[in-house]
Amino acid sequence: MIVSSTQNVPEVSAKPRHVAIIMDGNGRWATSRKLPRTAGHIRGVQAVRRAVELCARENIPYLTLFAFSSENWRRPEEEVSLLMKLFVKALQKEVVKLNKHNIRLKVVGDLEPFGDNLGKLIQEAEHLTHQNTGLTLTICANYGGRWDILQAMQQVIKTRLAKQVALDDVISENEITPFLSMSYAPEPDLFIRTGGEIRISNFLIWQLAYTELYFTDTYWPDFSTADFEAAITWYAQRERRFGRTSAQLDS
Ligand code: IPE
Ligand code: IPE
Ligand code: MG
Hints:
Blueprint: E1 18-22, H1 26-31, H2 37-57, E2 62-69, H3 77-100, E3 104-108, H4 115-129, E4 136-143, H5 145-163, H6 173-176, E5 190-193, E6 212-215, H7 225-236, H8 246-250
Parallel strand pairs: 1-2, 1-5, 2-4, 3-4, 5-6
Helix pairs in contact: 2-3, 3-4
The chain binds 3-methylbut-3-enyl trihydrogen diphosphate (2 copies) and magnesium ion.
Magnesium ion binds next to loops.
């Protein structure tokens, strides 16, 4: 499914096929209201619903949300534990609804530290929705872009050993991309980060090579349907050259 934007020029249209979002600013949203940071995460769930609904309604095939990074374990235990609880609750509560709306759910990241219970919930949710043909919603949990590349490389090595291919043979992108954790999706067309920071924070670092990057100061819990639509409109005005000149695109 991945068409590498550095190997082939992908087909582009005015509407993004894949939107990937760093949902940032929950803590500051809460702090600015003199609420505990966790209140921001709770409120952020509503913004997730809005974003999913918009993509489903607009027939955007892939939406990917960064919910918990491999670096977020560094946060206070209390906050990490609330984030886990919210994730479990959302899985239990929302999956039936997602299924009803023909949405396929995927959870990617290093899921092992989450334990058997959450692991089982994730598996069940993915299984329930795996044949759905509408929006593919991916939640990145304990995800890190470098982890993704490393685990893919590990599998490349394993495959080579099994097939008795020399380990020092030339490596091509096509050998790696099938093992990336989002190999079922095209590379993101549009990346959105809310909350005012202008950084990637170890999100899909391989896959974002040619993605259009949109940053907004709006905190995630405030990110409205109109805000999301504004990002999509901005995207439609980009000229995606993939190394070529404007004149080449015109002809
Ligand atoms: C993003 O909001 C949510 C997660 C990282 C889980 P933050 O919690 O990072 O909010 P800020 O950046 O501190 O405001
Ligand atoms: C990135 O946000 C991770 C998620 C939104 C899940 P952070 O708030 O953790 O990013 P940094 O650490 O400020 O770059
Ligand atoms: Mg943050």
